[in-house]
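Please decode residue identities from the backbone states below.
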């Protein structure tokens, strides 16, 4: 499809009001827009707290943040700042709020819509370019389809934050990065599993660098996981660009289904991802250079590019539910029963591809 006719040096707004990993997986579309409109200024609207994942992205002019749950005066002020400010506004979601911001901010509008429903029909008529989102497609495939519809290059490349590791945070080579704490409990592996994995890697002469978020809950959890272990703790100490640089230089990264694992995959580091209820066909890590073969729904160890995806393929998975108890603080049997030797086998495969230090 031909590109939308925009003015010289157009202003483009990309709307990505989702969680950190989702925002990161929007960057292939942003890169395609920048290649298609090299003189454009591209801004991105995100929720507060997710803007760091875009730091240092050369394709982006400015990141505009919306406080989570914002309303009243602050919402009116944001609407006033965005009103018809952009030559093109692009929503990367099907929701009502992203559509509304697309409608008010762009003189030309594009976005995603659901396959059916009265409101979907209204949205489609209000957009100059639209795609129907498939329930079975990967998030990056969705944004690449949107790039096709906009007539800009299809670039299957996740763009990670750019930065450097400060000398005080730079471990001696070789080292492994372990990110043991996801945002939600139902995505956790076992404390015993993490400790057994780390102990084995230490025995093989590798430094273990533990990362995590800055919250008290994250730190308390990691205190339990790493108590008495020979692990270098950097949880809460790194901004996104420094975290990306740290992971890029590691021999291997191991983590659960979380934004940091998506970041690791994008850096090109050999990445081992532990997946439970989440369907990797939709949300599996996107390897550096693109996903040439889709992830299978379930398997033991799958490899795509620089990513090894590890599952304990029980008959019920991937269920796409919030654990066995259907809530964020639930356990997940598929992860609780995932053995450390199985994970270590994937780590050994990943290490076999890492450059020798």
């Amino acid at each position: 499809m031909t590109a939308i006719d925009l003015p010289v040096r157009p202003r483009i707004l990309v709307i990505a009001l989702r969680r950190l990993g989702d925002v990161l997986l929007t960057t292939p579309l942003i890169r395609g827009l920048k290649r298609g409109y090299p003189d454009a200024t591209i801004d991105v609207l995100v929720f507060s707290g997710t803007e760091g994942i875009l730091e240092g992205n050369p394709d982006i002019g400015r990141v505009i943040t919306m406080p989570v749950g914002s309303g009243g005066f602050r919402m009116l002020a944001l609407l006033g700042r965005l009103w018809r400010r952009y030559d093109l506004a692009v929503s990367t979601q099907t929701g009502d709020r992203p559509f509304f911001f697309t409608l008010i901010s762009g003189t030309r509008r594009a976005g995603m819509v659901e396959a059916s429903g009265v409101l979907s029909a209204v949205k489609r008529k209000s957009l100059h370019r639209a795609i129907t989102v498939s329930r079975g497609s990967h998030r990056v495939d969705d944004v690449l389809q949107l790039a096709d519809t906009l007539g800009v290059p299809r670039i299957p490349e996740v763009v990670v934050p750019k930065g450097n590791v400060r000398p005080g945070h730079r471990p001696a080579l070789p080292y492994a990065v372990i990110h043991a704490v996801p945002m939600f409990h139902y995505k956790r592996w076992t404390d015993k599993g993490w400790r057994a994995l780390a102990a084995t890697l230490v025995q093989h002469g590798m430094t273990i660098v533990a990362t995590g978020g800055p919250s008290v809950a994250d730190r308390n959890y990691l205190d339990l996981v790493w108590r008495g272990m020979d692990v270098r703790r950097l949880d809460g100490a790194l901004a996104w660009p420094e975290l990306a640089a740290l992971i890029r230089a590691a021999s291997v990264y191991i983590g659960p289904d979380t934004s940091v694992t998506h970041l690791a995959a994008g850096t090109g580091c050999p990445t081992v991802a532990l997946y439970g209820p989440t369907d990797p066909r939709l949300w599996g890590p996107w390897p550096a250079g693109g996903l040439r073969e889709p992830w299978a729904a379930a398997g033991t160890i799958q490899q795509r590019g620089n990513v090894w995806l590890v599952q304990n393929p029980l008959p019920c998975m991937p269920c796409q539910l919030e654990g066995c108890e259907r809530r964020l603080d639930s356990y997940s049997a598929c992860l609780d029963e995932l053995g450390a030797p199985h994970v270590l086998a994937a780590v050994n495969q990943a290490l076999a591809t890492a450059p020798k230090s």
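Observation: The first strand starts at residue 11 and ends at 15.
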